[in-house]
Design brief:
With about 180 residues, the protein is of the alpha+beta class. Helices cover about 40% and strands about 15% of the residues.
């Protein structure tokens, strides 16, 4: 019977609670992983996933930027537009100073109307403080059952409080594919 130790990932990517959500998301995406343990020194204090970050962003209203003084707008409707008719799209493209600006470039400017939500918040704010761990000698089958019951995608592998690795759903798929479960 396969043990967790045989299939876990021991080259663990971890993050600190003070890391910005933007940096954490970039790290997870670059390493092609869905989540990571959160470490304060050598102690595991939580787990963060891309789902945690996306849920936070989706549920947090952005802070609107400073509205320019209406006198600066100088918006005149296009000549071909007549009151009572629907304004043409040119109203939105020709009269907005940043029309056509790269969206990512605008997000990176914290002074812009689009506030950099991910750059302003940290992993510690969104991480799950509930750490689910298994012993490296536990069977892969038992670990898979635990993940299914708790509806989670990864288990931390701890031995005497020390992080040895992570067993992910992908690791279990590898074990099943090798028919060594």
């Amino acid at each position: 019977m396969s043990r967790v130790r045989d299939w876990m990932t021991s080259d663990v990517v971890s993050v600190a609670p003070g890391l910005t959500l933007r940096s954490a998301a970039e790290l997870l995406a670059t390493r092609h992983i869905g989540g990571a343990p959160v470490m304060a020194g050598s102690r595991v204090v939580g787990v963060v996933s891309l789902s945690d970050i996306v849920s936070f962003e989706a549920s947090t209203p952005v802070v609107p930027g400073a509205e320019p003084d209406r006198a600066e707008w100088e918006l005149e409707p296009p000549e071909e537009w007549r009151e009572g008719e629907e304004a043409p799209a040119a109203f939105f493209t020709d009269f907005w100073p940043d029309a056509g600006a790269d969206v990512l470039e605008r997000f990176e400017q914290t002074g812009s109307p689009e506030w950099d939500l991910l750059g302003e918040h940290t992993v510690g704010e969104v991480m799950s403080r509930r750490v689910v761990a298994v012993n490296p000698e536990k069977s892969v089958r038992a670990a898979a059952r635990l993940m299914t019951r708790l509806q989670i995608h990864r288990l931390l592998v701890l031995e005497q409080g020390k992080l040895l690795g992570v067993l992910s759903a992908s690791d279990i798929v590898r074990a099943v594919g090798a028919a060594r479960v």
